[in-house]
Amino acid sequence: MRIRPGRLPDIAGDFACASCEQTFRAPDLDRHFWCEECIAAARARSKRIGVWVGIGLAGALAAWIFLVQQPTIMIGGWIGAVLATFWLGMRIAAELSYGIMRSRSRPG
Ligand SMILES: [Zn+2]
Question: Cα(52) to centroid of ligand 1, in Å?
């Protein structure tokens, strides 16, 4: 079997990061062939996206509560619901956006 030049790396060779295409040693890449820098960039970006989605969802819920429900009692319970919505929306949006970045091989 002939060894072809080009993108096929041998076992001991270098691998290109699937995202930024810089060359790294195999142990420096994760199982999706991403380097640590790209993973950190994607994590940071997905966290930011999560915060904004959480703020948007919680803001929409708060607006609905105060405009439609107009609570006079149990205000603490409504605030809890808004906070829970922010937290859940943030977590879910961060995981989703991170998953999408990974499947696209782009940290953004
Ligand atoms: Zn990279």
Answer: 25
Mean pLDDT by 10 residues, the chain (108 residues): 50 80 88 91 96 98 92 86 97 96 79
What is the 86 CA–ligand 1 centroid distance (Å)? 31
Residue 57 lies in a domain: yes
Cα gap 101→23, rounded to integer Å: 20
Task: Give the total number of structural domains in the chain.
Answer: 1
* 12 CA distance to ligand 1 middle (Å): 19
Instruction: Quote the pTM value.
Output: 0.73
- Inside any domain, residue 99: yes
CA of 35 to the centre of ligand 1 (A): 4
Taking the centre of ligand 1 as the mean of its atom positions, its distance from the CA of residue 69, in whole angstroms, is: 49
Residue 4 belongs to some domain of the structure: no
How many other β-carbons are positioned within 10 Å of the β-carbon of residue 33?
Answer: 16
Bridge partners for 14 per DSSP = 25
Q: Is residue 95 part of a domain?
A: yes
